Amino acid sequence: MERKENMKILFRGISLSGGAPKSVFQHLRILKQDGHHISVIIQGSEQYLKELYESEFESLTLLPDVVALFRKRRFTQLYRQLCREYKALKSSRPDLVIAFGCAYPFFYGRFCSELQIPCIQLVAGGDLSDNELYLKGGEWCHAIGFSEENREVLRRYTHDKNISVIPNRIALKTKFDSLPEHLATVQKGINILLTSRVAGGKYESITNFIDNLCRAADGRVKINLAVAGGGEKLEQLKKYVSGIDNPFVNIEIKGHLDNLIPEFEKAHLVVGKGRSVLEPVMMNRPGCVIGDDGKIEPCTPENFDRLYRHNFSGRGLVCEDPVAVIKEVLASLANNTVDIENIFQTAQLAREYYSAEFLREKLYAALDSADFRLKKKMHIPVILRLLKFTLVRFKQKMKNKKK
Fold first, then answer.
1. 20 burial via Cβ count (<10 Å: 0-12, 13-18, 19+)
2. Least reliable range by pLDDT among 124-133, 137-146, 175-184, 289-298
3. Percent of the chain at pLDDT exceeding 70
4. Which helix (H) or strand (E) holds 221?
5. Which of 3, 194, 206, 394 has a 20 to 30 Å separation from 136 between CA atoms?
6. DSSP string, 83-133
7. Per-residue pLDDT averaged across 209-230, rounded?
8. Residues 117 and 93: beta-carbon distance below 8 Å
9. pLDDT at 330
10. Per-residue pLDDT at 24
11. Per-residue pLDDT averaged across 108-130, rounded?
């Protein structure tokens, strides 16, 4: 991509929920710091993130995103929405569009190609294998994935083989350096922090971990488990926990917390997946990745590359007996035999791979290597494109039902 100073950049994103929009924000923050003008069109579903975008960028437009429209809106409403967005692109003509969300390559990538506007698709680090029909529309964008797993899938389903991978997206706020002294306090009770959205498949990862933790607790040391995170299954989780009767494990459901630093500071062990476990690990806390199926694996320098390949998502874990793994981790904490140097090495690796302080160079390298397809194409009316995408969506649903 031929870069210039003070570019006009439009970010078109999806719902402000979970960790991905915070990750995308770090990309935009770097571009703004370098003097580029950022405008944002996004669905504002969470107040604290909405305020973050509003305070940082030149303009923020809150609109329903395409995926939500397909789920909740009529065809005619979606058609009018897309017409407005196409006209807005045509009139504003940004120097670069950054899009975020599986449905967007088809619309934004093709729109941008016809208007000679480069488009980058940011792809969060989740499992994309069930979205192959959507991904086939991505040949009009240059993709930046968050994980090697993303790159492998995108290479299978798009014409762009030059997929960039930039995992760096977490703004590290602090580091806890007094780890040996902190871990020595476990005799008063082992403090475990589980951070996760309480929604979808993540709910099973939480309940499976709680079950296995209760089975692993032997009464040698009191265990205090705090669960931080909000979501539509929060009340269901509270009801589930209220039915647990284990004298060795105390469980507190904290719900959503804007500031997790005090919880990270208290924790002797952090568990979760993705950003939820990476952020405290970067701050020198021992961590374990958990999967939806109950598997669990400690973060170590030896398995870091494998966990990184799956973006610390809980997929690809090597774990035959999760209860035995938890017992081993608890014993090392209780006996004060934790390998401190291993934890510091893991934290350093996590910072190198995931800290936003190393983002700038990788981001501009991706922009420089992007192979945009900006050849003039015959304009296809929005209505025809929408009909085609509706067919793609129907086929994708049928394909997923067969699995």
1. buried
2. 124-133
3. 85
4. none
5. 3
6. HHHHHHHHHH--SEEEEESTTHIIIIIHHHHHTT--EEEEE-SS--GGGHH
7. 94
8. yes
9. 96
10. 84
11. 75
Q: Which helix (H) or strand (E) holds 155?
A: helix 148-157
Helix (H, G, I), strand (E, B), or coil: what is residue 255?
strand
Span of 68-77, 225-234, 336-345 with lowest mean pLDDT: 68-77
- Tokens matching residue 355: 């800290």
In whole angstroms, give the CA distance from residue 58 to residue 376: 30
Two tokens, residue 191? 């403090």
Q: Select from 315, 360, 15 the least CA-distant residue to 166.
A: 360
109's CB contacts (< 8 A; 6+ apart) are 99, 119, 121, 137, 138, 139, 140, 141
Going by C-alpha positions, the residue among 277, 95, 77, 98 that lies closest to residue 194 is 277
Instruction: Retrieve residue 387's tokens.
Output: 């009909």
Average the pLDDT over 172-198 and give the result: 92
CA angle 38, 379, 122 (to 5 degrees): 35
CA 232-238-207 angle, 5° bins:
85
With helix as H, strand as E and coil as C, how does 2-37 read?
CCCCCCEEEEECCCCCCCHHHHHHHHHHHHHHCCCE
Axis-axis angle for helices 382-402, 75-92 (nearest 10): 120
Give the pLDDT score at 31.
Answer: 92
| pLDDT tens per residue, range 270-280 | 999 998 999 99
CA distance 350 to 11: 27
Do 305 and 329 form a contact (C-beta atoms < 8 A)? no
Query: Residue length, the chain?
Result: 403
Sorted by sequence, the CB contacts under 8 Å of residue 153 that are 6+ apart come out as 128, 129, 132, 135
Beta carbons of 212 and 323 less than 8 angstroms apart: yes
**Contact between residue 96 and residue 7 where contact means Cβ atoms under 8 Å apart:** yes
- Res. 211: pLDDT tops 80: yes
Q: CA-CA distance, 148 to 152, in Å (whole number)?
A: 6
Predicted confidence band of residue 291 (pLDDT cuts 50, 70, 90): very high
Residue 320 has which token pair? 């035959």
Nearest-angstrom CA–CA distance, 27 and 98: 10
pLDDT given for residue 124 in this prediction:
73
Contact of 99 with 120, CB cutoff 8 Å? yes
